[in-house]
Design brief:
Layout lengths: L15 E4 L7 H9 L3 E4 L4 E4 L3 H10 L5 E4 L2 H11 L9 E4 L2 H9 L13 H5 L11 E6 L6 H8 L3 E6 L1 E4 L5 H9 L4 E5 L2 H10 L2 H7 L3 E4 L2 H9 L4 E4 L5 H16 L1
Parallel strand pairs: 1-2, 1-9, 4-5, 4-6, 6-7, 9-10, 10-11
Antiparallel strand pairs: 3-8
Helix pairs in contact: 3-4
Length: about 260
């Protein structure tokens, strides 16, 4: 009788992947991670909610309809913006810009084509694009949530543009159940965290128990930008690795490479 074939080892077998995205944005990444063999631990670091005052947000969008450009900072900004505008009232700026391919994809699903970075999928990457090299005299709307980075607004104002921030949604601190905490504690190591927001890290550090934080800081963390890497280091994390961007494929590629080195 022939020996039974050995099971094929998947790229993330034996590791836990900590996904910090809001629940609404994490489904695809979760499915892909599990298909690669990871034990997925969902720690949604923010709750996405409608703008605190939707009437003010809607009025801000209407006032910027004739702007030279609208810049969307996330897929959530796209979803909440179009919900506020309502059917039959599409945005009408001269240009649409997105901080990354995921945000551009969300705009495309709304019937809008947007420019996005050809290299680094981030605010810094968008600022390197030719379309924003000389925006002097432009009026630009930043479609986002309160508490975001000032990099886009400050840089564009320095280049001569008038920038108006329109907050179309909120990112609130999450609530994590005791059951979820216990699941994290029992998860196999290494814990590989996927991080694409400094605010997400701050939120989790504010609510996780101190013993969990002490262990977490020793585990590998993948950050989607140099700015987030620096922030994680300042927060006491010791084993930080870069991802090419916040896209699912790039985060998972970084996790696969990290675990392959760990197994050597």
């Amino acid at each position: 009788m022939a020996d039974d074939p050995k099971p094929v080892r998947r790229a993330l077998d034996g590791a836990s992947l900590i996904i910090t995205r809001p629940s609404a944005n994490a489904r695809s990444l979760t499915v892909q991670a599990r298909a690669l063999g990871a034990c997925v631990v969902r720690l949604p670091a923010t709750r996405l909610c409608a703008a605190a005052n939707p009437h003010v947000a809607r009025a801000g969008l209407e006032q910027m309809q004739d702007a030279d450009a609208w810049i969307f900072t996330s897929p959530a900004a796209v979803a909440f913006c179009f919900e506020l505008l309502g059917a039959g009232n599409p945005p009408r700026p001269a240009r649409f810009l997105a901080v990354g391919a995921g945000t551009a994809r969300a705009l495309h699903e709304q019937g809008v084509d947007a420019d996005f970075p050809s290299a680094a999928q981030s605010s810094a990457g968008l600022l390197d694009e030719l379309v924003l090299e000389a925006p002097q005299g432009w009026t630009i709307a930043l479609i986002e949530a309160p508490g975001g980075s000032d990099l886009l607004a400050d840089t564009l104002r320095g280049r001569g543009a008038t920038v108006v921030r329109v907050d179309v949604y909120q990112r609130l601190r999450p609530w994590l159940s005791v059951r979820r905490m216990e699941y994290l504690k029992r998860a196999p190591r290494p814990w590989i965290s996927l991080l694409s927001s400094s605010a997400s890290l701050d939120n989790l550090l504010a609510i996780l128990p101190s013993d969990v934080i002490a262990q977490w800081q020793k585990e590998p963390l993948i950050a989607s930008s140099a700015r987030i890497q620096a922030h994680a280091r300042a927060c006491g994390f010791e084993d930080i690795h870069p991802a090419a961007s916040a896209l699912d494929a790039d985060l998972l590629a970084a996790a696969r490479a990290l675990l392959a080195r760990h197994r050597m």
